[in-house]
Amino acid sequence: MTEPASEILAVLIVGAGFSGLAMAIRCRQAGIGPLQVIEKADGIGGTWHDNTYPGAACDIPSHLYSLSFAPKADWSRMYAPQPEILAYLRETAERNGLMPLIRLGTTFRGATWDETRGLWQVETDRGPILTRAIVSGMGGLHHPAYPDIPGRDAFAGAAFHTAAWDHSVDLTGKRVGVIGTGASAIQVVPELAKVAAQLTLFQRTPPWIMPKHDHAIPEGAKARYRRLPLARRLERARLFWLHEVRAFLGFTKVSKLTGQAEALARRHLAKAVTDKDLRAKLTPDYRLGCKRVLISDDYYPTLQRPNVTLETDGIARITETGLTTEAGRSHDLDVIVYATGFDVTATFARMHLVGRDGLRLTQAWSNGMGAYQGITVAGFPNYFMLLGPNSGLGHNSVVSMIEIQVQHVLDCLQTLRTGNRAIEVRPEAQARFLDRIRSRMADSIWQAGGCRSWYLDASGRNTTLWPDSVMAYRRSARRARLSDYRLG
Ligand SMILES: Cc1cc2nc3c(=O)[nH]c(=O)nc-3n(C[C@H](O)[C@H](O)[C@H](O)COP(=O)(O)OP(=O)(O)OC[C@H]3O[C@@H](n4cnc5c(N)ncnc54)[C@H](O)[C@@H]3O)c2cc1C
Asked: Considering only CA atoms, which of 84, 91, 90, 128 is closest in space to residue 108?
C-alpha cells in the first residue's frame, strides 16, 4: 500500500528497539518534532521482540540494562527474562506517549539527500517520507547468521534460528541438535535439555564462561527502590562501575589482570565439570575477552546430564535425518536449532543511502565501515546512527552507549532548529577519530587474543566494538563538538 508523503518531518527515527525508543523520548522531551518512528516488525522492542527462545534474558543486570531516564524499580530478577524486558520497553513507550508516533510494519528501504531543499527523501515499503534528519536505530543484531554447511535445505525435520523461534514446534521428547556455543546457545541449551529426549550440542569453539549469580530480587529491595529513588540510582551506579572495571580486566586488551580473570573462569569450569575429557573440550585456547565473555550458572551442569552430548568434531554436512561430522559420525535429529548469532555488517552493507553529490554509503565504506564517534559519516548530512560502527560493547551495558549517542544527536538536531539546514561531520574530524580507533585496536584483545570472532569484518578489522571504557566514550562523544561539524 502506498501512502502519500504529507508533512515534512523534523526527524525520522528508524527502529523501535532500545535505541529508537530512547531517541524518540528525548526528542519529545526537547520539543523536537514533527517526528515519526518506523519499525519493520509488527511490534516494538527490537532484540526483545525477536528473541523469544526459551531462557532468553539479558546478561547485564536489569537495573543497569535499562534507560536511566525510564527507571523500573521492581525488576523481578538480577537478569530479567525476555518477556519482562519486552514489557518494560512497551510500558516505557506508552508512558512517554510514543505509540501514536510509531508506524509498525514499515521497512526503511533507503534514502537520498536532496541538497537543494536540505531534505532526505526516504523510501519505505509503505511509501515515501520527507524528513530533515534521519536517526538510524536499526541495531546490528537482527540479521540471523547461518553457518555455511552443505545440505542445509536437505533436513526433513524442523529447523530454526534462536532469533526466529518456531513456537509451534513442541520439543518435548525430541532429539534436538543445537549448533553454536555463543551467548544465545548457553541460555537456550539448559532449557531445551529439560524437555528434549536427547540434546546434542555442536561446538566449534568453547566460550569463556564466568559465574552469573542470577537470583530473584527480594521484595524488600524492590520496595526500597520504589520508595527511595536514590537507593535505585546507587544500585545502578554500583553495577555500572562493577562492569566498567571489566574494560581493564582483559575485556578490551590483554592486561596483567587477564590471567586472573582466566583463572577465575577456569575455577568456575573445574568446580562444575568433574570429567577430565569434558573439561578439556570446554577449555578455550584463546585469551579471555577475544570473543564475548559469557555468564552462566547452569550451562556446565547441563552438559553433564545423561541426555546431553557435546560434539566437538566439525560438521561435514546436514542430511535429511540429521548431521554428519567430519569424523564420519552421524547424529539423527528431529529438530535443528541454529544458535549461530548474527551477521552484524548486513544491516549497514544492505543500506541504500545516497548522500551529498551522489555518494553512496556502500562506496564511502568500500574499505570497511567507520563513522565519527560511531554516529556520523562525512558526505551524509543530517544522518545519525545509534550503535553504529565501533560503538558496541563487550564489557558493559550498551544502553549506556545509546544514551551517550542520543545526547550527541540531540545536540546536532538542536543546531537545525536555529536556522541551519544541514549539519555534517568534517572529513578531517572523522579521519582523526578513525585513526584513534585504529591505533587503539592494534593491541586490543580482539586482534591479539588468538581467536576470530563476529566482531571482525572480512578483512579482520574490528568495526563493531568500542575499544575502551564507557567513560572514555562519554568523554569523547556525549556532547557534539560543533567545530568537528560543518553547518550550512
Ligand atoms: C539475545 C540477545 C541478548 C542481548 N543481551 C544484551 C545484554 O544483556 N546487554 C547488552 O548490553 N546488550 C545485549 N544485547 C545486544 C542488544 O542488541 C542491545 O542491547 C539492544 O537491544 C540494541 O538495541 P537497538 O535498538 O539498537 O537495536 P535492536 O534491538 O536490534 O532494534 C532495532 C530495530 O530496528 C528495526 N529495523 C531494522 N532495520 C529496519 C528497517 N530497514 N526498517 C525499519 N525497521 C528496521 C528492527 O526490526 C528492530 O526492531 C543482546 C542481544 C541479543 C540478540
From this structure: 128
